[in-house]
Amino acid sequence: MPTPVMPTSRQADGPVSSAAVSAIGLRKSYGDKVVLDGIDLHIPAGSVFALLGPNGAGKTTTVQILSTLITADGGQAQVSGHDIAAEPQDVRASIGVTGQFSAVDGLITGEENMLLMADLHHLPRSEGRRVTAELLERFDLTDAAKKPAITYSGGMKRRLDIAMTLVGSPRIIFLDEPTTGLDPRSRHTMWQIIRELVTGGVTVFLTTQYLEEADQLADRIAVLNNGTIAAQGTAEELKRLIPGGHVRLRFTDPGAYQSAVSELREATRDDEALALQIPSDGSQRELRSILDWLDSTGIEADELTVHTPDLDDVFFALTGGTDKAQEAVR
Ligand SMILES: Nc1ncnc2c1ncn2[C@@H]1O[C@H](COP(=O)(O)OP(=O)(O)OP(=O)(O)O)[C@@H](O)[C@H]1O
Ligand SMILES: [Mg+2]
């Protein structure tokens, strides 16, 4: 299946070297199972990138390769300007990683987990205490700081996990499913934290199963399927890739509706609502031609709305939801 061509940020943001993360042709297999079959990525510094894909698509594998936890079988990647194969120590010094599964040690307190991270980053003791207190406060964990982490709820543990990742003030952070299992309030808190990090200039690479999360946070989204990037772009660009988008014209006067129906034979009718749907990708060019055409025929709708498919539609289309949807992106 050819990859739908989207404008790449490489064109928009200049040379690859300005990227926080760039990768070309990354490959990884386990035995004869090909997990990544040539992945290209370009993530500008200070942006949020979301990697989507069904279970087993290779999201965690990609994070592990880019954070030098495992090596790729082929391809190249630079993280923070350092080659992952040649300069793994430099890569590690510039990143923070929150894995899919918690790195929190349950037997010691939240504060002790934080101080341990400060030691690992060779922070002087007083600096370690200062950073720990500040992050515990920021993640609303001060009250629980002296309790063993095993007593924390899932959401508290996840917040501690991310607080631990931030101890070394990384410029690039990898968050592998940061909000899986969190309730809606905790999820929104996490989104707020991620937005604040980005405001501070941090680059965020996140994986998620939640399309709404990608929609809310990410500047660019890539959908991983069958070892390759099936599509990437902004949420809006991805939504325009699949059919289902339309312009809806609603009328209040039945006479005006009837004359529009006779002019617009290809439109889908909704006689009850006095509304017509015209298929459209929602692009400026298509909208302009629809509006011009309405003007030329003298049709005046009382309400005109543009509907684009949501990211769920895109996800199903790109990752084998239905044959019809698959066909649409071919
Ligand atoms: N150490 C390993 N040995 C063998 N196979 C592995 C190993 N790690 C991952 N895999 C396989 O690689 C594939 C991709 O796994 P990965 O964990 O990257 O997927 P994922 O997209 O993160 O999935 P999920 O959404 O479930 O977290 C899976 O088929 C998995 O079974
Ligand atoms: Mg995973």
UniProtKB/TrEMBL annotation:
This protein's record includes keyword Ligase: no
PROSITE patterns referenced in this protein's UniProt entry, alphabetically: ABC_TRANSPORTER_1, ABC_TRANSPORTER_2
Domain called ABC transporter: residue spans: 21-251
Residues spanning the membrane: none
Subcellular location: Cell membrane
GO molecular function, one term: ATP binding
Keywords: Antibiotic resistance, ATP-binding, Cell membrane, Membrane, Nucleotide-binding, Translocase, Transport
Membrane topology: Peripheral membrane protein
Protein family membership: Belongs to the ABC transporter superfamily. Drug exporter-1 (DrugE1) (TC 3.A.1.105) family.
Name of protein: ATP-binding cassette domain-containing protein
